[in-house]
Design brief:
Elements (H helix, E strand, L loop, with lengths): L4 E3 L4 E3 L7 E6 L4 H15 L3 E8 L18 H16 L2 E7 L9 H15 L3 E5 L7 H16 L7 E5 L4 H8 L4 E4 L4 H10 L1 H15 L3 H10 L2 E6 L3
Parallel strand pairs: 2-8, 3-4, 3-6, 4-5, 6-7
Antiparallel strand pairs: 1-2, 7-9, 8-9
Helix pairs in contact: 1-2, 1-6, 2-6, 3-4, 7-8
């Protein structure tokens, strides 16, 4: 199977699946998967590659409860778990939970997390792993999970290490100034509607956000361009050791 890539300036554009055996996405919250790599997940699933989302927490400390409210602090964990299961069904992915406490991943021992993540990598024989770029995830949970995942990959024997793609969060111009251009651009146009549907499945978090952003985009050309680009491409940095 392998990748079908076209060389560009400082990056490569992926037009087909990179993983041949298993794509493992390791992020801390429900909805991180759809925002960061939903198109890439759906592309691999449609090609017959197994896809698993290893989710660190249940997102139960999130502030959004739906509009009108259909969750509360007591029920949010169950609601967000079901939202994630539906999003992963849409994307063609299995889901597993690590059971960490939301908004406290930064206080976990990164080496212990790395051991747990490495165990899943080995169990699934994953040959592509996606997580956040340590230090460029914006949220402390994002950075901590990215660091633990990088340690997990680095700690494996060289011959057993999967490709590791990292998601950096922020405006592209600022990221390129700090990190250079993304190493990988995945063409997700054929899966853009699936990615949007998966995001909409996270209704507690996205319904109001989409309404607000689309209203703002009507008068903001830059925002319209950013939203449209999000339907075309997902960007990653290749941090494979």
């Amino acid at each position: 199977m392998g990748s079908s890539a076209a060389t560009t300036r400082d990056a490569f554009t992926v037009h087909g699946p990179v993983a041949e055996r298993h794509l493992l996405v390791v992020l801390p919250h429900p909805d991180d998967e759809s925002f960061s790599s939903g198109g890439t997940m759906a592309m691999h699933a449609d090609a017959g590659v197994a896809v698993t989302y290893l989710c660190g927490t249940y997102g139960d400390m999130g502030r959004n409860m739906g509009v009108p409210f259909f969750a509360n602090r007591e029920t949010l964990r169950d609601v967000r778990e079901q939202e994630l299961r539906e999003a992963c069904r849409i994307l063609g992915a299995d889901v597993r939970f690590m059971g960490l406490r939301d908004k406290t991943v930064e206080f976990e021992d990164p080496d212990e997390l790395a051991v747990r993540i490495a165990g899943v990598i080995e169990e699934l024989d994953a040959d592509l792993v996606i997580s956040f770029y340590p230090g460029h995830g914006v949220h402390p949970d994002h950075d901590a999970m990215g660091e633990a995942t990088l340690r997990a990959v680095t700690g494996l024997a060289e011959a057993e290490r999967p490709t590791f793609w990292a998601v950096a969060v922020g405006e592209r111009d600022g990221l390129e100034q700090a990190l250079g251009p993304a190493d990988v651009r995945v063409d997700i146009r054929a899966w853009a509607d699936r990615k949007r549907a998966a995001l909409e499945a996270h209704a507690t978090q996205t319904k109001t956000m989409f309404a607000r952003m689309e209203a703002q985009a009507a008068g903001d050309e830059h925002l319209r361009e950013r939203l449209e680009e999000g339907r075309r491409v997902e960007r990653f940095y290749d941090l494979t050791p």
